[in-house]
Amino acid sequence: MNRDKKLYLFYVFFFVIFLGQATYAAFFPVYLSNAGMPSGMLGIINGIYQIILFFFVLIIGMLSDKIFSAKKVLLGLLVISSVLLLVFKRVDTIPHLAVTMVVFSVFFSSMSGIYEALGVNYAMRTGRHYNPIRMAGTIGYAVMSAVLGQLLIRQESLMMNSFLLVLLVSFAVCVFLPDIHKVNRKETDGPSQDNNVFMLLKNKELRYVLALFTVFMLGTSFNSTFFGIHLTHDLEGDYFMVGIGNALLAVSEFPFHAGPGRRWMKHMGIKRCMIMVMFVGAFRWMIASVCNNPWVFMMTMVLNGIMLVPVIVELVEYLHAITPEGLKTSAQTVLKAGFSMVGVLLANVVLGQLVDFLDSRGVEGIRAGYFFLLIVYLTAGVVGISVDKFAVKNRKWRDGHYVKKTL
């Protein structure tokens, strides 16, 4: 199969798997809330599965890099997720829904790092850009959000059936995807090369970027869990508006996957991109915390693109570039997982419990959660600028000191 056909396979796979991502992220929280699950329990579920996911991706990364291959592990996860979705369809009590949601989320969410690694690895090996591949997923997310949001108003059961079909088609396409080249230990730099992916954290810039990534995950996880609930329960919206909001979320990425937006981010670099994410996020959460109009709240999703693309493209490519061969998949799965887990736990367990506590006392807890995010993002942005300025001054001092010594 020539390279162009393989590239088209990646386009198709990302488009299809993100049909499932849209179903999971946009509609599952509303589905569970409509089934009678309290906001606090929903937050605890997301927190528990993130803790399990952190340890699970350690195994997934090892299996992908050392024992099997990334593609084989991804195929296995697709099969298991499909089986769990069949179980999900037959569960009707809140405790059973909670347990099934945790198990399904662990297997389904662990896929993302693997197909990101496959996509960016193929793009870089063939001299292409990862952005168009990822944008195919964005288009799929937008299409599913808009279409399924309209359909679920009429028949909520369509969600599980369509999701199962998406996983089956994803499996069929994944069979033909090119795998990551497995590196023999003799091909590496030798025994001196460290095989522990966490050794990459010696890189100060990487620690700085991942700290801001944690804050990003705090906000995006809270919004992912509570956007649909706030829109439908507090602001009197419906499934259609949830779908349109998530379609806008996806479409907002387009200018930053291609054209001037992409060139602008490359020029800024990963550190300054992440600082920009903090300030844009602060503005977004400010609107979410004060608006009472469901349409205005829905339109906050337009700001998602400028926040998300630096994470899903720039950070992925940055990690790939600084990671030695034999650890490429682990870097995308394991390394980000710990930082992601902290953000998600704070969003879903701490803020989730706060939402439940305030709701029980007649206060809009989700609105208070958005206000908390405004404070955190604004603080992170200000601290980020200070750290960046200090790093620039320190680098200039070192360079000047070196010049004087050589003279």
What is the CATH homology-level superfamily?
Answer: MFS general substrate transporter like domains
Number of strands: 0
Mean residue pLDDT: 84
Low-confidence stretches: 185-193
Sum up the overall morphology in one term.
Answer: globular
* Distance from first to last alpha carbon: 58 Å
The CATH topology corresponds to: Growth Hormone, Chain: A
- Gyration radius, rounded: 21 Å
Architecture (CATH level 2) name: Up-down Bundle
- Count helical runs: 16
The first-level CATH class name: Mainly Alpha
- Helix-strand topology string: HHHHHHHHHHHHHHHH
Structural class: mainly alpha
Strand content: under 5%
Question: Can you tell me about this structure?
Answer:
The protein is mainly α and about 400 residues long. It has one domain: MFS general substrate transporter like domains (Growth Hormone, Chain: A). The chain is built from 16 helices and no strands. Helix 5 packs antiparallel against helix 15, helix 6 runs antiparallel to helix 9 and helix 15 runs antiparallel to helix 16. About 0% of the residues have low confidence.
